[in-house]
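Dear support,

Our group has been running a series of protein-ligand predictions, and this particular one with FE2/S2 (inorganic) cluster is the one our PI (initials K.S.) wants archived with full inputs and outputs. We had some confusion internally about which version of the output was final, so please treat the block below as the authoritative record. The input we submitted was:
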Amino acid sequence: MWEYSDKVKEHFLNPRNVGVVENADGIGEVGSMSCGDALKLTFKLDENEIITDVKFQTFGCASAIASSSALTEMMIGKTLSEAEKITNDDIVAFLGGLPKEKMHCSVMGQEALEKAIACYRGVPVEEKEGEIVCECFGVTDLEIQRALKEHNLSAVEDVTNYIKAGGGCGKCHERIQELINEFKGHEPVIDKKPEKLSNIKKIKLIEETLEREIKPALKKDGGDIELVDVDGSKIFVKLQGACSSCSAAQITLKEFVEKKLCEFVSPDLVVEEVS
Ligand code: FES
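Confirmed final output from the archive:
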């Protein structure tokens, strides 16, 4: 079950600016119905190139609707060159976070915006450069390299979450892994079995990682974390201070706490919050 911020829920339940702008100056369409995600963005400008109206239609999940709605709110009142600078990270931040499995919804918003602006400027939408790696979703090696770099991704699953590549038949996973390895500058690690940790050693390592890597970062924002229990690969924690009431707490837990513990203790760990 994904955790959504209040703002995502709000924009999903009451999406702003749904529809199509009549006589639009710019139109951007991305995705396809067959993949389950599609977005059409239309906007109108005044004589100073300020966006006065923008609407969207989407066929997608709650995150796609919320991301599109958020994007339209961010665009209205901006000049075209200001709107052009909106990135998918801005959309995610506006929404107070998105589950990592849904990051591609915000990327779809950014792509629709790029296409709509290109349409207004009469610039042909550039043919994708590079070699298609994922045939299911038409994603090229250059797009994967860009996502790896911009979001510092390190696993095939992360690439799928961000740009959908690899989310279909799975034939492209090996090539995506090669691109990840090239990006990280090392050869593939073949079948390297993680060291089996005893329970005591595991708990000790978890505590050390919390103290050294996690608590200092949370404390900077007025939060903290307490280890409650460890059961096999499940780690139960309690968020404290500012973190306990933060709308993005689940994202902090999964994207920061869990990733750090997987990196420094064991890759199979799952972090869960207890109240
Ligand atoms: S080719 Fe990438 S998922 Fe099918």
